[in-house]
Amino acid sequence: MGDYSQCIQYKYKNDFCIKCLQKDEDKKSLQQQLPRIAVLATGGTIAGETDPTELTGPYRSGVLSIEQLLAAVPMLSKVARIRAEQVANIDSKDMTIDLWGKLVIHANELLASPEVDGIVITHGTDTLEETAYFLNLLVKSKKPVVLTAAMRPATAVSADGPLNLLEAVVVAGSKASEEQGVLVVMNDEIFSAHDVTKMNTYSVGSFQASEFGALGWIHENQVHFERSLVGTHFNTTHSRFSIEKMCKLPQVEIAMSYAESSRTSIDAFVANGAKGIVIAGTGDGTLHKVLQQAAIDAVRQGVAIVRSYRVSYGHVSHEKLDDEADFLTAGTLNAWKARVLLMLILAEGINDHAERQYIFDHY
Ligand SMILES: NC(=O)C[C@H](N)C(=O)O
């Protein structure tokens, strides 16, 4: 029954009012028109709890349940019909490839159902961009998939999680978000999984999209897109990768170049069975000569080497050295996203160097 307190007829006759019942019916049919969003919770600071004596920290990630997070945002029932699942409840620093696989398989199942219009995944901020990019390469649907998180725990003064969650659900329920690839919604902005990076250790404005900027923004529950991507990754359904073909992802590690770099990291990775190594190089992906020699030796042992960068953003393009040493270059992908792509390339059994580089240039 609706709220009849404003209805004079109801107040005075204590009887049912046709007009109010009509309004009730209208409300019901409006409710039926709301998008159906599946919320998959994995933990993170958005589900974090502070010590009651603290303002924003120290705190523990992945403590509160998805039901508690949803209950903190009553307005959600006005923007979507929600079904929620607790897939995990972890600090995303501890993210595993196994959980990535589960998320992809479950997301694909849900998105194939006519009962689901979009998906929101709540996540920790630390590895959110890796999960988002992994999903972007493996989700097979044009329906929106949106990741969100929080920089402040749920119990903090001025927690950012509730608004981020509400806005992520609004974006996932918007037709404008279809065919945009996997999206990340943080702090009123909409980013592509391909571009977004956590740039700051504490700020609520931590997520940015390198030199490319956000795809759009949300204001007063209205979704605005300003641009979209043009690479193959633009629409997840165009990705050549598919989770069904992948049993186990090969070991791919990340090394870094710096002053007086040794070859210890690369040699240890190779000795440990790594099939690929991404190097976060200085400047535009340059390598200290000692590390570079280790990388050349690794290629000779059949290990794939990708040059990426350790600065905040930019791109690493193909140079003479790459032709000579058979190195791959990561383009605009940072080292941890390049690692995700290299794992999929190797898992797919793509051995041709030019084909591998083509994928780095287009995904
Ligand atoms: N803001 C956060 O979510 C950080 C947290 N350590 C996590 O990634 O789970």
TrEMBL record:
SUPFAM superfamilies referenced in this protein's UniProt entry, alphabetically: Glutaminase/Asparaginase
EC number: 3.5.1.1
Catalytic reaction equation(s): L-asparagine + H2O = L-aspartate + NH4(+)
Keywords assigned: Hydrolase
GO biological process, one term: L-asparagine catabolic process
Domain Asparaginase/glutaminase C-terminal span(s) in chain numbering: 251-359
Keyword flag Hydrolase: yes
Catalytic residue positions: T45, T125
UniProt family annotation: Belongs to the asparaginase 1 family.
Protein name: asparaginase
Species for this entry: Rotaria socialis
